[in-house]
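Sample intake sheet
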Amino acid sequence: MSSRTISAPKIRSIMEKAAMYTMNVIEIFDENICDLINNICSSSQMPPEYVITLLLPAIGHFLNGSQIRTNTGTTTNIPFFTTIIGYPSVNKSSATEAILSACLAIEKHIGIKPEESRINCSATVESLLTELKNTSPKLIQIWDEAATLLQSFGLYKQGGAAYDRSIMCTLYNSSSVVKRQTKSGNITVENPVLNIASAAHPVDIFSCVSGEGDDDGLMARFLFSVPQPCIPLSSEIKPLDIDEPSFTHLLYIIYCFNMLEPCDVRRKDDESQRIIYTYSETALKVIDNIFDEYTLQIREAYGIDQGLGSILGKAKVQISRFAAAIHATSLASAVFDQLANDDSLPGYYEKSKPMFDLLKRAVRAWTLRMVVLGVLAKEKLNGAHKATTFFIKTTIDPKWDAAQLAAFTIQLARYNISLKSYKESLQLERSSVVNEAQYGENC
């Protein structure tokens, strides 16, 4: 960490300005996910930005090595380096604990022993690479105090270059191989995916960022959240709704969607066997416009503000990672809808094996037949996938009269889906069911 420090008044000014920008949760996630987030935040006295910022790396971790094909045609992993920032006693620890507990519960269910946990606490690059090599190439770090991690950056230097920072930058990227060569030995890790979720005090993180200058852009790879804290009186705290699902259920569903099986129609023939998410034609036009907007700003900043240029450059890749993460939550939201319809939605504290098995069956029931699950649509906000799953078993009967057809059209409109679009999706479903039957015969 840099030895440079920022004055207390300057820190307060930065915190106040940053808190002016709020995250509109309902414009990002489906209704089910918003309810889940709000339930946890209201009862634990946290701003939603804290939870969402730390949830992103957890989603990236349980995407299980899946990738997204960007608008430029290249594939990228979907990891996140994130940090929530706040003064003491604003419940940053509650946010990290919520994510950590969910990760531990899932690991316990899928049979990962504590000594083989994918939740890593390596504070040095040497230790981290060893764990990526020997434990798993897919790890997540959850830091209650980001200073522990940040203070290790720059420990290994030669000729002014910090090799550990370089390694962290490479791990953030989608390098197929990461190597570390030292006198004591060499370490080679293939297809690593590292996610980092952390909490920090303002003085720690701002000193680190201000000291970076135009170096390697490591801090530009982090997503920082500095929201207005939630400090309610006892009478203003809402009790936890124990009938709502938890992060454990959300993340486990995402894990199941990205756990390839021999009969999975999304299975690829390449060596990595990863799921590759892609954009629909309509979504691709939208992402192209966003990409060009960032590019034009980079052109303006080039040679003038290298820090801004670095941040915008990373944003062009991060936007695709965001899209994949939000898509993953939309699929999970669709499963929640189906379970709610069947009156089998799990409660907050339900972590039994039958519950996990139920979630897995709910995912597997339609993962194998829905090829379009890997396609990111423009309609991420109105829940196109959510509506498809909600009405997955509903067919349009030609004998319906005008009133019946109108009622069904109104149901679709609740999810911003037109009758024409729904009919087209049925054609995709029939084609997918044929594929499922063919794959079922071969399994």
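Comment: The radius of gyration is 23 Å. Residues 306-341 form the longest helix (36 residues).
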